[in-house]
Amino acid sequence: MFIVMSDSHTDREIVKRIKEKYEGTASALFHCGDSELPSNDEIWRGITVVSGNCDYDEGYSEVKMVEVEGKKILIAHGHQFYVGFGLERYSYFAEEKGADIALFGHIHQPVAQIIGKTLFINPGSVSQPRGNINIKMYAVVTILDNGYNVSYRDLEHKEIPDLQFTFNL
């Protein structure tokens, strides 16, 4: 099980609270960019983080690929792939990289869908939600024997009922 958050926009405290909740129990913690915090902030110890379009610190990577629980996970903020207009460009990039899971932020809205053989996840925003579901949120991803479970949680760490997904491969 790993945690995905994004778009905290200077709210260091919420990043800290999520980190403290799952540190030591989650196999990985991810932040998909737009933290607006310094890249050398100690909060990032133990969190895989990338830069977003609002992050100007050159210490961040734009894209990272890591392996977690035997799965290749691609992480990018998404603005460089124009995810606000759809996932076509990001899906081509993820396919080229051989990603099992592709994480992204930028649009501040939850997305959980399979394109080709890749699971795409946007965890929403922990500070500035947009769209129809106006809840500050993050995602908990569980790798199953034959697929994935994606559970969106609010900042009280409670499941958001309409945002619970299981994907069978």
UniProtKB/TrEMBL annotation:
- Top-level enzyme category: hydrolase
Domain Calcineurin-like phosphoesterase: from-to ranges: 2-143
User: What top-level branch of life does the organism fall under?
Assistant: Bacteria
UniProt EC number: 3.1.4.-
Kindly list the cofactors needed: a divalent metal cation
Identify its protein family.
Belongs to the metallophosphoesterase superfamily. YfcE family.
Keyword Transferase attributed: no
Organism in which the protein naturally occurs: Lactococcus muris
User: What is the protein name given in its UniProt record?
Assistant: Phosphoesterase
Entry keywords, A to Z: Metal-binding
- Which SUPFAM superfamilies did the record assign? Metallo-dependent phosphatases (SSF56300)
